[in-house]
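pasting input
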Amino acid sequence: MLILRCPYCGVSGEETEFHAGGEAHLKRFGPGSSDAEFEAYLFQRENPKGVHFERWRHVNGCGKWFHAARCTATLEVFGTYPAQSTEPPADLRKAISAKRPGWKWREFS
Amino acid sequence: MSRRIQQGGRLIDRAQRESFAFNGRQMSGFAGDTLASALLANDQMMMGRSFKYHRPRGPVASGAEEPNALVGLSAGARFEPNQRTTTTEIYTGLTARSQNHWPSLDYDIGALNGFLSPFLPAGFYYKTFMHPRPLWKALFEPVIRHSAGLGKAPTEGDADRYEHFYFFADVMIVGGGIAGLQAALAAGRAGAKVLLIEQTAHWGGRAPVDGVMIGGKPADEWIAATLDTLNAMDNVTLRSRTMGAGVYDHGYALAYERCEDAVPQARGPRHRLWRVRAGQIITATGAIERPLSFPGNDVPGVMLASAVRDYLVNWAVAVGKRTVIVTNNDDAYRTAIALHDAGEAVPVIVDARPDAKGPLPERARALGIRIEQGCGLSGVKGGKRVTGAQICRQSGAGAVIEEVPCDAIAMSGGWSPVVHLWSHCGGKLTWDDAQAHFRPDPSRPPIGHDGAGFVIAAGSANGEMLAGACLQDGDAAGKAAIKALGLKAKGGAIAQAEAEGEHPMMPVWLMPADATPELKMKIFLDYQNDVKLSDVQLAAREGYESVEHTKRYTTLGMATDQGKLSNINGLAALSQALGADIPDVGTTTFRPPYTPISIGSIAGEARGPIFQPIRQTPMHAWHSENGADFEPVGQWRRPYCYLRDGETRADAVTREVRNTRQAVGLLDASTLGKLVVKGPDAGKLLDLVYTNMMSTLKPGNCRYGLMCNDNGFLIDDGVVARIDDQTFLCHTTTGGAERIHAHLEEWLQTEWWDMQAYVANLTEQYAQIAVVGPKARTVLEKLGGMDVGRDTLPFMGWAEGELAGIPARVYRISFSGELSFEVAVPASRGQEFWNKCLAAGAEFGIMPYGTEALHVLRAEKGFIMIGDETDGTVIPQDLGLNWAISKKKDDFIGKRAQQRSHMTDPNRWKLVGLETLDGTPLEDGAYAIAEGTNANGQRKTQGRVTSTYYSPTLDRGIAMGLVLNGPDRMGEVLEFTRTDRPPQHARIVDAVFYDKEGEKQNV
């Protein structure tokens, strides 16, 4: 059972306080998009072994959505940040690079 | 024979007798006895029969690793199967029954399996019970079920109480041996919050039994003093009878406390499950002795040398009068010496090593005990009890050089650290060649949330097999944990422990080394599952190279003991058969719990009425008192119908439907979700989450809306009321309120976070009561206070005011097709309003109606229900709801998805009404049969029933269903499946069965 820190209320809580919401930084494709774009938005996920960015909601707490950077192999949590972000914060990316040199996730590294 | 000796027994209190029953026979023991030690004291060596061959079995161990001596405890609602006699403390009144035999322990018919054993090799079931298929149900399964399996499952509900307990610790230490105690001292002195748990009732582990001296005194004295020190520390919590069950992600751990197992009929919880979050976890879980693989090693009376020593020193029980020792290491000599010191006969020590020259063998020699070096056992005489040991050369094929009469054999194949907890969460192991065991690899520990290791192994669990090293290692572990937590370790001397040094052991995986195939068939690797050396070798020959596959094929290491004794011997046998090194073969996965825990402890308090919180409307008590037959709807309980004297449920539903259609009905609709969406962008948000346009809705009006997910599928529906320019009240389905609230929050927070709108769930703030039927307006007019006339409050309008002096918001919406008002009042006044409605409506024949009548009423009108007509694969277009899908909007959630080719396929199944030819209702979920069969030989289908009811209004069965090209096939008759009966014929009709023009709701 993971421990996560909610970046809104600052609480470090048990996993049961939170709810996982799948991959982060998806770009929504709506009407006017091609079939390929829409399929990718709905179904294609990174599913990496290693550094991953994912969505969580502090559902039994402040109710806010946030993002977590986590290693899917070791379960190490590199950091959390608000869901109102279009990319992982620079300092977090730097911190991940220190621990996982050469990491790459979608267009981020 | 096994018996109690006159002297010693450090754990028993000879002043206090306890009487208990075993297989109906009264026996007695002393306080402090385990069931195993008490049975052995009564010369009851045989305690059960084996799983597959029903061979007679006695205890082989003295603790948690015991595979054989399992019994059923107590009876009735307190019956518990598969309990280890070696860990069960006796008390007066305890009753135990042995398992796996029929008709009795001594005479068992299943033992015939033993004679058939050459025909029951590894994978027997897989190979034999494949064909012919029809025999499975009739023959194979009943036979297997009768003869296999361990204890029987209890048949009654559990009468005991259980609880969960939450605990947070800086350092959790599992194992109260000397390493764990020393680790607790080190961590406790530094001021950390420490939890130290021990699975048995006693502290100190094996040190006192092994005769260890600490600081020049017997280990017991150091243990008592250390406990005093720890108990005096406010920051240290100690719990005995508490087993470390599992280690999970990020320092989460489970511990299993047996609070009242030794105290019958106690008032407290029987077991307590500790849910611990620890900064650092130290596993000081000790080591387990391994059996030796020699022919006949499962005959009752063959035991681990450490167990023989435990029974003697701890409980003053000599398991035999003449005990032969067979070993590959020095530790077993401690057993020989202890037996000799107690005056018991040790005819011979059989040591597989060519020469035994350590201090312990020298002491045994000095005591005059005969030692045979370079020898092993090639056979054990006796069936239900050992009568002799056959000595052979270890290096040979097993030719007997001497037969020694004896009634017990103490064996030792070396020690394996208990690495389970280390491994549960990903800690890796390394192979220690010198000691021939796996030990934790400190460079690859389980990883915590911060990327650092959070488990430290200590003492013999870490491969430190001598007492002095154990103390040093425990201290180092405690200090390492303190450092990892960022605290400062304090000094404090470590006591010096003295125990005789040990010379190297010699790995022996097969005794004798070149045993013949006949002998191999008598060597048991896994006692609990009756897996023999020959089975593992056969599996290897048949291509099972992976240890995980071999485990499943042979059942090695399965069931309640999970191979605590058999794992290393089994994989050593596999590696030899494969010609590979043991570390390359690897271990099977260690999974929690370490030893079985009660299902009751997992459930904890969550049983009966508090299994799940029940949501109740403000009128719930009234419903209960007035015949409500409740059904669960989400976490709510809603009246299915209100039963009157002598009525069946069907009678009640029919009465409620007719009364609502003909007079007036009253429905508690408080469970409907009520979400307020407010803000300058509220309309914009709702335009995106509903398929239709909500921003154009005028204040004072209502509009029915559909919500989809971005996959295009319909997820909820309900009526939206515009309260004012910036405020909408969105009704959701009963089960959907929280889910839809979360759905809106998700889009608002993660996609359109620039929108100025917020959502609040007001579901429980209002009691909502639907007054439904031709006389509904008359009832409200009698209550008085608001003009609810046709022109002032038209259909799909709402108004705010007072009814009977209670603030009310009245929505003129209808889910029944009748004239209908849904009245929302403050929750605190719901019951009052309900009563007033009943009183005012009495003269018009008002009656409450339940959810089933609600369903029938809506089905008669062809209204869909989320969860009936939808199942997560249905889009609004399938249900003929195109009128509720805006064509003007650029975007809404689900719009793009509904443009996909599969969604626009004209051959999707679509909603129609169904009318049976014979008038009886269709079966729920029935399929419409099509011509031909599919690839699996099943009939093809062309539709299915989504809702089906008996309609009291039409006095016939009516249904809705999704049918291939349904709307284009009006009047066609289809065949629908029925369970165990021939298909039923139904005609495709319009889904609106009643008042097609909608005049009744609009009066």
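fyi The longest strand of chain A covers residues 51-57.
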